[in-house]
Amino acid sequence: MTKERHIAGLWESMGCQYTGGTTYSPEHREPEHLMPMSNYLQESGALSSDHACTLTDARQTVSRPARLQRFWRMTAGAMLLAAAGQAQAVEPDSPWPEVLQEARGESVYFNAWGGSERINSYLSWAADRLEKEYGVTLEHVKVGDIAEVVGQLEAAKLVGRNADGNVDLVWVNGENFASLKRGGLLWGDFANTLPNASLLNKSASMQADFSVPIEGLESPWGGAQLVFIYDTVTVETPPASAQALLDFVKEGGRFAYPAPPAFHGTTFIKQLLIELSSGSDAAAALAVPVEEADFDAVTAPLWAYLDQLHPQLRGAGETWPTSGEMTRQLLDDGELDIAISFNPNEASAAVRGGQLPDTVRTYVFDKGTIGNTHFVSIPWNASAKAGAMVVADFLLSPEAQARKADPEFWGEPTVLDVASLTGPDRALFDAVDLGVWALPLGTGKVLSEPHSSWAQALEAGWLQHYGQ
């Protein structure tokens, strides 16, 4: 019996009618000591604005306090019994065989971005594999903005919904992770206990998410890094540092970047700030919340650099590309010599798709470029924690990671230490054909992101200096 039908039966046992309406007499609310249960029912949908109970013949039925109290006691008891029946034995550090046993038969609702057909198809493939191998049903809940999911979890916490949540796994990183961790909305240190966690590379972004310590609260899933794409026909030796880029455009090289707050533009100025701050006290300031730093002093070298760079750009600092994708289009049109991307494999997919010539190549600065990792995490009130752990572990498997890295299916860098893999696991990655256009697997030093609070402050500073 569904929760909704069960509650309808309780209403009817009181001589009331459950009609899915939106009204009930406010003067006959439940006793105060049962208000948390009412909040739970309202939040769960039984008493929500679009699916509530209507009490009929209020004078004869609802006006009897004894019956109403009896209803709420019955409801509370039934819900507590249901919760007890659904109690989960698994803990973040449970032995893996126990996790596998409890996971079999569970449905895992994975809240993840749904705006890419390639990603959606990949998750459909993963769902088939999980069902066949582990008896776990993966349901992809397509989300436009993960911040919306964070808001839903915050609301559930507020009303005391500490079990039977409707989000079992969530794709997350950056400020969204910081919000979830700060609000106590994550389950526990499950990520370090996953069997495939031993295959991860040891980059700094696996330990801190935009400078926020991870502490096992989320499991890595994929990586991304700022890269530059150039055409070997027009550029023989691409600039490999901020200073070299400035010299490049002063000598006639054609370059442009999107105006912040466009993602690629913000990432580019963060990259410049990291390099220009290297070796100074300002470098340490980027790892802490921006309000704890002297923003003007830390960013002064950045604005001085951009004052020199902007007059030399395509558009002369008056017009800007709208996105990283637009810089790629301008490169293809012959209007730029260098484009920017946050996917080291983008050039490979673009060449195969006829969007770039086969003379392009991908590189990063000699001292590395900004990169980050995106993760999956389990909310504290997830209904299928064991199943979610199995999904997170499968997404780390060489099979799943190699398919994800293949431009034919997705084309995103792996989070595994490919060099340490052997035998069939290594063969899966050796078979991935990135072509000569992508950043070679395992190359390109990754620099840690500044603390998540710096992004918005830098965007505001940029607009103050250069906005029109």
From TrEMBL:
Transmembrane segments: none annotated. Coiled coil: none annotated. InterPro entries: SBP (IPR006059), YnjB (IPR027020). NCBIfam families: PRK11622.1. This is ABC transporter substrate-binding protein.
